[in-house]
Amino acid sequence: MSLLSKLLKKDTGDGNSNVGNVEDFVSLTRVYFQSVIAVNLGITNINFIPDVAQFKRMFKVQTQNGKLGLAEKSRARKMLMQDYGLSENFFKEIDASVRKSCKTPNDIQAYLFMYQGFSNDLMMLMGNLMQWKFRIPLLFKKILKGMTEKTVHEVCTKKVWKADDVHKTATAVRQYKERLGYSEQWMTEYVYNIVLLAKKEPKQKGDIAK
């Protein structure tokens, strides 16, 4: 089990300077999503939110005021802000998206499935469109962020693409975006953090930022 492995080391104060990897970041984001869902819908069965269950066990998070997800949401948010520098708006958009799409427990699986499709298609598309731009050294983070922002804008506004697979995926991403209610700014922040983390990981064949 490697979920939040490096975050756990950092949180326990062992002096490890590594913040985490792509898997840790994505997993911690899911913990926040599921915690918001639990709080909003009053979920009491932790099996509905498996990532929160694992997070709760690993960090020994005590249930706050008898309400599942409340303490976990606060803890995950704090870690994401401190370790990855995420903005307040990043979390506000997640909160708004969950309120809009998850009104009953029956909506949970459909929402999480839709979000997973959105995340997967977005990252696959960005990897396809940016390619060499991901090889920009970490020294030039500002330039990389600007390029990420520009590419996200194109994905959200450009209606026709030459390659059929790119056109199909871009269309799917825009549809997910509208249904979930996320902005270009949110998408840029999410993608940019994943790119930075991927660039810090050992290079492997097929990596997005090798």
Describe this structure in words.
- With 210 residues, the chain is mainly α.
- The chain is globular.
Briefly say what this structure is.
This protein is mainly α. It has helices at residues 5-11, 22-41, 50-59, 70-84, 88-101, 108-130, 141-157, 164-180, 184-200.
- Envelope shape: globular
Record field, number of beta strands:
0
The rounded Rg comes to 17 Å
Please indicate the percent range of residues in DSSP E strands (runs of 2 or more). Answer: under 5%
State the end-to-end CA separation: 25 Å
- Elements, N to C (H/E): HHHHHHHHH
Instruction: Name the helicity range.
Output: 55-70%
Q: What structural class is derived from the secondary structure elements?
A: mainly alpha
Which segments are poorly predicted (pLDDT under 50) over 5 or more consecutive residues? 1-18, 205-210
Number of helices: 9
Q: What composes the largest sheet?
A: none
**What is the mean pLDDT?**
86
Protein traits:
single chain, 210 residues, 9 helices, globular, disordered C terminus
Topology:
Layout: H1 5-11, H2 22-41, H3 50-59, H4 70-84, H5 88-101, H6 108-130, H7 141-157, H8 164-180, H9 184-200
